[in-house]
Amino acid sequence: MDLQSSGRSRIAAPFFCILLCMTSSLATICTAAPANSIGALAEDDYWHTLLHYKRTIFSQKSTIDDPKFFLSPEGATNPTAELEATVAAFSTGDPSDEAHPINRFPARLNWLQKNLAPEHTARFVAAQSSTFEEVWDAMEPTAASVIFPTQYMNNPASLFGHTLINIEGKRNEKILAYSINYSAITEESNGLIFAVKGIFGYYPGRFSIDPYYQKVQQYSDLSMRDIWEYNLNLNQDEVRNLILHLWELKDAYSNYFFFKENCSYNLLFLLDAARPASNMVDQFKHWVIPVDTIKEVRKNNFIASEHYRPSRSTTIKRIASTLPKELQERSVEATKSDAASIELTKSLDNREDKIRSLDLSAELLQMYHADGKIDQKTYADRFLTILKQRAPLGKVDDDFYPNTTPPPPHMGHDSSRITTGFGSYDSRDFISFSLRPAYHDLMDPSAGYTLGSAIEFLSGEFYYYTDEQKLEVRQLDAISIQSLSPIDTFFKSKSWTLNTGLTTIKEKDSHDRHTAIYFDAGVGVSVSLFDNSIGYALIEPAIYLNKSLASNHMAGGGGVVGLLSKWTPKWRSQFEIRQRYYFLGEDNNLTEFKAKAAYSLGDTTALQVSFSRSHEFEQTWNELRCSFQLFF
Predict the structure, then answer these.
(1) 261 and 362, same domain (yes or no)
(2) CA 350 to chain centre
């Protein structure tokens, strides 16, 4: 027994020595790198937020492309080097100089004062930025809100909406607040060119601060976009954190990317800086849709309440809905001269009709002035005449006009969608699968979206024919846009469509289909036929490219008429009849009828049934499909 115990001791002794050495080494490491050391803080998530680092599998890189934002030549990719350079810069020089790093980077200074070891912070030449404090005292910020101007389909640069951050002072008057905006710096006035260049990062993006009332005029009057204001529950320290970081970004630029590093993505950095550990930016890996960032902000419990601010066009339509068409037209005439507005008032006996007609004329006149259709003097004279007639009629109750507040954007379905289904095409049974990264189509649930507006990109659809055991790439769309804007007495917007990508087309004298590059567009008019229904008629040019076609292409044009309806919040339908004549390249005519019906099962799921009958290349075939949709 003694010999065995001795043997175990001789075996165990080296093991305990090794364990003791390892423990000692770990203790040394821990002692050498306390939580408040430069090495430890360089890996802190908040430091990475201040530097706008985007994490990859093996490294990180800042989304800020301006080299002046970094104090180290390696600062864009090396957080330790940037932190060491920051500590060194804060420890030397004259802090009264506005260009001193302490005045350029007050958010870094504030964080380091709270977290860095005292032996480092004791050497800082100042404890705060006097330049920043002067601005802070002048602003007196107390609250913040996220502002969401809704999408505007007649401007490609505004297809997905936009986000701003408002900073409000002690007066707590929202319209007098300051708006923080991130946008591309360009003088390009063509929305389509702006969108295309923005996709590939051809513009620098910068933060700017403007009075909120200017933004209301820009987005609500000129662009005819409703605005949603989301009040944030930030405390005073969190508001200060946000402004501190904004100050650091005021002179820096980063390349603007329409689908990723856009307004919404960059504003999330400010909110992450306001409330440490939120890390909302990390939730967006591939693309960023503004409304999705609103949902993420809500998910992280930043939002206390929301407020709806209707656009001028929405207000005009709301007032007009209470008047017969004759009085709508006379209200338009009343904006053209003082005599016309006076005559309108005299000719009406009913007080309510007078109020509605004059209110409508006043709103129209303001819109014409904002759009530059009348000069300031003409506007002032005519507007004063209308007000003089309106004043004696007195105020009205809040319910005098119908409440048309739509569901807020965050109540809409998630932008990504998976669809699975089954059906029969040309007497061939199939199983279908499709994936859409973003954003919304005409048959999706319309709550939170504009009826008649749709945009999808990078969507794909696949058929698997069960009898033939054959997989077919049915459709791969680069982008698909539909904008059905009903015309009325006041607004004459064009309706239009744009679609391009890969699709399958029927082969002449065969039931086979071949993949072709395609581009088609449409322009025309839409009208509101009855509540929540839009009728439309569009002229459509189209071109297809495939080597199986005569001269490798098929081009022509035609038209489509259709009816889109939302019967209830859950039920939707669409009917279309299309006729096309292809006369360049392959000679062919297409006649097509489509019908769709969709039903929402819940917030994230829906069912859809579709039927189509097509005739081309002297062949006729039918397709019937049932599908299940999941939004995420």
Answers:
(1) no
(2) 45
**247 and 150 together in one domain:** yes
The domain boundary, picked from 246, 276, 309, lies at 309
Q: How many residues can be counted in the chain?
A: 632
Answer whether residue 131 is part of any domain: no
Domain co-membership, 305 together with 324? no
Give dist(CA 63, CA 83) in Å, integer. 17
In this structure, the number of other CB atoms found within 10 A of the CB of residue 398 comes to 7
Tokens (6 digits) for 412: 């809409």
Statement to judge: residues 610 and 554 lie in one domain: yes
Closest CA to 273 of 90, 61, 78, 53: 53
Amino acid identity at 456: E
Q: What percent of the chain has pLDDT over 90?
A: 77
Contact between 360 and 318 under an 8 Å Cβ cutoff? The reply is no
What's the whole-model pTM score? 0.87
Tell me the pLDDT band of 18, cut-offs 50, 70 and 90.
very low
- 462 and 599 fall within a common domain: yes
Q: CA angle at residue 464 from 458 to 468, to 5 degrees? A: 150
Phi, psi torsion values for 431, nearest 5 degrees: -115, 135
Is pLDDT at 174 greater than 90 in this prediction?
A: no
Does residue 621 share a domain with residue 587? yes
Tens-digit pLDDT profile for residues 408-442: 999 999 999 999 999 999 999 999 999 999 999 99
Distance CA 629, CA 623 (A): 19
> Does the pLDDT value for residue 25 go beyond 60?
no
Q: Please report the pLDDT score of residue 226 as a whole number.
A: 92
- Domain boundary at 309, 343, 368, which? 309
Domain count, the chain: 5
List Cβ<8 Å contacts ≥24 apart for 368-373: 368/335, 370/217, 370/221, 370/222, 370/312, 371/221, 371/222
Which alpha helices (DSSP H) does 33-116 contain, by range?
38-41, 45-50, 79-90, 101-104, 106-115
Contact 166, 212 (CB under 8 A): yes
Say whether both 373 and 501 belong to one domain: no
CATH number for the domain including 428? Answer: 2.40.160.40
Is residue 552 domain-shared with residue 603, that is, in the same domain? yes
Query: Does some domain include residue 399?
Result: no
Integer angstrom CA distances of residue 359 from 8, 312, 326, 458: 99, 12, 15, 45
Amino acid identity at 388: K
Domain around 351: 319-393
